[in-house]
Amino acid sequence: MSKLKSTLKQKIEEHRPRTTRLLKEHGDVKIGDLTIGQAIGGARGVKCLVTDISYLDPMEGIRFRGKTIPETFAALPKVPGSDYPYVEGFWHFLLTGDIPTKEETLEIVKDFQARAEVPHYVFDVLRTLPRDTHPMTMFSTAILAMQRDSVFVKEYHKGIGKMDMWEPMYEDATTLMARLPRIAAYIYRMKYRGDTHIAPDPALDLGGNFASMMGIPHPYDDVARMYFILHSDHESGNVSAHTTHLVASALSDAFYSLSAGINGLAGPLHGLANEEVLRWTQNLMDRLGGKLPTEEELKAALWETLNSGQVVPGYGHAVLRKTDPRYMAQREFCLKHLADYPLFKLVSMIFEVCPPILKEHGKAKNPWPNVDAQSGVIQWYYGVTEYEFYTVLFGVGRALGVLANITWDRALGYPIERPKSVTTAMLEEWAGK
Ligand SMILES: CC(C)(COP(=O)(O)OP(=O)(O)OC[C@H]1O[C@@H](n2cnc3c(N)ncnc32)[C@H](O)[C@@H]1OP(=O)(O)O)[C@@H](O)C(=O)NCCC(=O)NCCS
Question: Does ligand 1 come within 6 angstroms of the Cβ of 365?
Answer without folding.
Answer: yes
